[in-house]
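Backbones bend. Shown next:

***
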Amino acid sequence: MTCLLAVVMTSLASPDLANAPIPLPFLSEVAPGFDLAPAAADGPPPEELDKWKGSVTVGVTYADGNTNRKTGSATANVSKRREKDRTTFGFLWNYAKEDGATTDRRTIATAKYDYFLSKKAYALAQASAEGDLAAQLELRAIVGVGAGYQFVEDEKWKLSGEAGLSYVDENYKDNTADADFIAARFAYNVDYKPNDTWQVGQTGEIYPSLEDTDDVSARVDTHGKLMLTKSMLAQLQWLFSWDNTPATGAERADNLVLLTVGWSF
């Protein structure tokens, strides 16, 4: 995570800061590496407006004989950016069966709506639902509202940060007590697309409970995409999850790595 954010800040560095057209007396005191160009110069490329854009990928494995194992995975991410708002949907599904018994089944669905109050600042509403067989999590449902700031949004870079409040409802399969509480939400999103061949990105969010300081959950999604053809892609994805108060017998930290192929649009 630290390396990716370091790449972001290095790329955003501007050696021509002294020539920035802002006649303010304190300009000489600003640390190099920050672009103070007017916000109006930044924004989504016109060709990306009013279009659904995203990707769908799948992955499968099959083994029979000495090992009897089947796995399947699928991901989908779609978004639509308009001048004043942005709608985003995400989906992840992972399944594993070994020797006739289901050993893993995890599903995550997310939805978010952003309404831009200015070129950079926006209000948001978001919701997510997650189930995880291995973690004995039947359902974690989250709904919330907040505010965000789009630091950069152009053809190569997208960088934003968010904060808000959410209602979290957790239900477990075993005898672990269910829980529901109000939590703060802090999140960020960064994407880097240097050309039409590949891109990398990372999203992260953390939910510290405002009612019980021990109840904290977080998720970091790091992904890279390589375009094999104009529309076909290969995707490597690492999903790191943290639950500070997991179900009985479950680990706090959980890692899922997926290699999938699919299509972009």
